[in-house]
């Protein structure tokens, strides 16, 4: 049976002050709090560069799962790549997800909004010196036309080194959201072993994305996506989470740090339990919570 977080547990976790959380020794992850998000994005970039340098020195491949948001860390990473002439030739980049239209087709790259291929090409990949950049075939998006290729390639490469992740309000990683159908059930074991798949976005995700970018204009947000599954996510040796947005992420941060069971309510709990190394960056505002002030 799935573990359900009780109101009493949630209220207890949300009652701790930021200073209490910083001092706790039993958190599920290495918590790194910075005054504002741009400070931790530079630190994340340094972690990226150091891992790449270490693997390059061993002649080993580096295997990442990365989001198309947040991407602020990439500018700092690219600065360092160019300054130190760090080669990305042995880097494999597995993008977490891609939007789909209502018919489960990819959004054209020249569309005004919705193509994560276009976002990454414009804001990240095109900024990297081609002489240092990894081959195009080592940048892999989940593809609705060949759902098995993504997971098979990760398995062939021996799993993932690090996932660089933003986390949603209800604990999504990529578009691995809480199952929401009233007509069928998914067990924890099924979810833990879930593969790349096509999903309909949960309503809270549509609300968040439309509010953040289009003033609540829901029709601007593609209703579906193709996403990495939890099986490939949990093959990682490390996950580095980046949380900002203040009140939108304050409760899920507490769940990530303090919930010791896995729950389909908050899929990120699977990563907190099963990935060996967990680092969580957040800003001071996101560490706050209204319940800790009562």
UniProtKB/TrEMBL annotation:
Q: What is this protein called?
A: Glucosamine-6-phosphate isomerase
Q: Which InterPro entries match?
A: Glucosamine6P_isomerase, NagB/RpiA_transferase-like
Gene Ontology CC annotation, any one = cytoplasm
The GO terms this record gives for MF are: glucosamine-6-phosphate deaminase activity; identical protein binding; isomerase activity
Q: Which UniProt keywords apply?
A: Isomerase
An annotated GO BP:
N-acetylneuraminate catabolic process
Q: What is the lineage of its organism?
A: Bacteria, Bacillati, Bacillota, Clostridia, Eubacteriales
* Keyword Isomerase appears in the UniProt entry: yes
Isomerase as a keyword?
A: yes
